[in-house]
Specification:
This protein is an alpha+beta fold. It folds into two domains: 11-91, Arc Repressor Mutant, subunit A (Orthogonal Bundle); 116-237, Muramoyl-pentapeptide Carboxypeptidase, domain 2, CATH 3.30.1380.20. Helices cover 54% and strands 12% of the residues. It has helices at residues 11-25, 28-39, 45-52, 56-68, 98-119, 121-146, 154-167, 192-196, 202-215, and strands spanning 72-77, 86-91, 172-176, 181-185, 223-225, 234-237. A four-stranded antiparallel β-sheet has the order 3-4-6-5, covered by helices on one side. Strands 1-2 form a two-stranded antiparallel ribbon. Helix 1 crosses helix 5 and helix 3 packs across helix 4. The chain is globular, with a radius of gyration of 19 Å. The two termini are 34 Å apart.
């Protein structure tokens, strides 16, 4: 295993970071929302709509994207009048620095590689799947809390999952089969680490299983193909 120096740049890791930032901040209204929440934490969708000059439903769409990327969260704001509490939005971390993110992630991937080498293939794959499963459940539950869809099918869930994965650097898209839905990832945030340790691909299967559960979709079998294991695409099918 080799650890990159600060002057080295893993192309896959760089692509993952840029993909994530573009997915979350590629829209001008989305950037306005994020910058406003940095200064005015706790703002509601109505307040953000007035600030941006758009309908509140447009704001909610952009909030979903920022939530997918882990940049924005919310707290319930209870009113003195009868009715459901409003959602007061706030940024999770006021620092969005791409260079620092790349270096931090490179260090974590190096640590992960060493841990996998010491665990052995079977235990490493089981661990990778379980970590993906738990993380995916959390992502799915967070996305479900901000979603306006009351009915969740595997089809709608996989569409949401593609967005969530893209926000995390996977550059994912949905492909629909006759009886199945697949998420195909064009990029791997693990970079060269996945080539050295294909067991990391089990994270993808766990992630999607967890996100399906977190989003409230009906339980289904999830299968995986990956380029690191010799397949033509990185694809998770449900």
């Amino acid at each position: 295993m080799s650890i990159n120096s600060e002057t080295d740049l893993d192309p896959a890791l760089f692509t993952a970071t840029v993909t994530s930032l573009a997915h979350s901040f590629g829209d001008n209204t989305r950037r306005k929302i994020y910058l406003y929440l940095r200064e005015q934490p706790g703002a509601t969708a109505s307040e953000l709509a007035r600030h941006c000059g758009v309908h509140a439903n447009v704001v909610r769409h952009h909030i979903e994207r920022l939530t997918e990327g882990g940049y924005v969260t919310y707290d319930n704001v209870y009113k003195t009048t009868v009715g459901r509490p409003a959602k007061g939005y706030r940024v999770v971390d006021s620092n969005v620095a791409m260079e620092g993110s790349i270096r931090r992630d490179a260090l974590l991937v190096a640590l992960l590689e060493m841990a996998l080498e010491r665990l052995g293939p079977k235990a490493a794959e089981s661990l990778a799947h379980d970590v993906g499963l738990e993380y995916g459940r959390g992502l799915g539950a967070s996305a479900s809390a901000t979603s306006r869809d009351s009915t969740v099918t595997v089809k709608t869930a996989m569409s949401s999952i593609a967005g969530l994965l893209t926000a995390h650097g996977f550059a994912a898209r949905v492909e629909e089969g006759a009886t199945t839905q697949s998420v195909v990832s064009e990029n791997c945030p693990f970079g060269s680490a996945a080539q050295h340790h294909p067991v990391l691909c089990a994270v993808d299967r766990g992630l999607i299983s967890g996100m399906l559960a977190g989003l409230g979709a009906t339980s289904t079998d999830v299968t995986l193909t990956s380029r690191a294991r010799g397949d033509t695409t990185c694809r998770v099918t449900a």
